[in-house]
């Protein structure tokens, strides 16, 4: 995503002369650059950086670090021990972080590991033990939400891949919010994205705050329902994996590197279904009950017949019918 400038035609012509396969599309204040050749990715980003362009990008999937979670370790496990152990087993560990409950920030016995995948890297999903214990490896699913870049405070990209000018969330100047010395009260602050007074650009009430598409929400709900239906078998993966690298919901003190994006999750008017955050399992809902009853009848078909006969029988006879069935089965 290249920030649109009125002089864009010189730039696009120059790029096209080098990479004829490129296509460009205007998207708001940005130009989207598409390439069918992933090898050009580095060359194009280097070119844009050299030209002093403001842009952010999405590296090819294969070159991004892989995030997984390690389960079944004690809650008190030191993240450095996990890092050392995985390194000894041949993995290239970028970062280990312990996940926490979203609201209470209490530690969970789940550890997010970020790995760089090299051609000779072992398969992390085949990892059997860590810190002398048998462990379970799962994919890391971010909690659904909007990502806001720590660097430029625009949305849907990570500051890791952001080459935009830094914009302070509070005052809009070229520094990060942690370095801001503005004493202005919230009521007088001007939002750096919509320019209205009285809220920050990270506020859900901002008109520029991205809306989550309803279609996606429906799909998510469907997935959630399916997951809860199978709750007795499957651990629901996208329960509160606090936004691992994303700072606020993690245990940042022992992290080996700094967080890159902030994923804002809406505590009020949340469009997402709320997972049970106290345990790793979904609550036992109506659908689960229906499922269990169905299963019971499937496993013991005579119960249906028994029900019919009990309804038909009266008084003392009922007991006899019941005993008869017990003897038969
Ligand atoms: Zn950015
Ligand atoms: Zn500032
Ligand atoms: Zn705003």
TrEMBL record:
Domain called CCHC-type: residue spans: 148-164, 167-182, 190-208
Domain Pre-C2HC: start-end pairs: 79-147
TM regions (residue ranges): none
Disordered: annotated span: 250-281
Biased composition annotated in UniProt, kind: Low complexity: 254-270
InterPro entries given in the database record: Pre_C2HC_dom, Znf_CCHC
Molecular function GO labels: nucleic acid binding; zinc ion binding
Any Pfam family the entry gives: PRE_C2HC
Protein known as: Nucleic-acid-binding protein from transposon X-element
Higher taxonomy: Eukaryota, Metazoa, Ecdysozoa, Arthropoda, Chelicerata
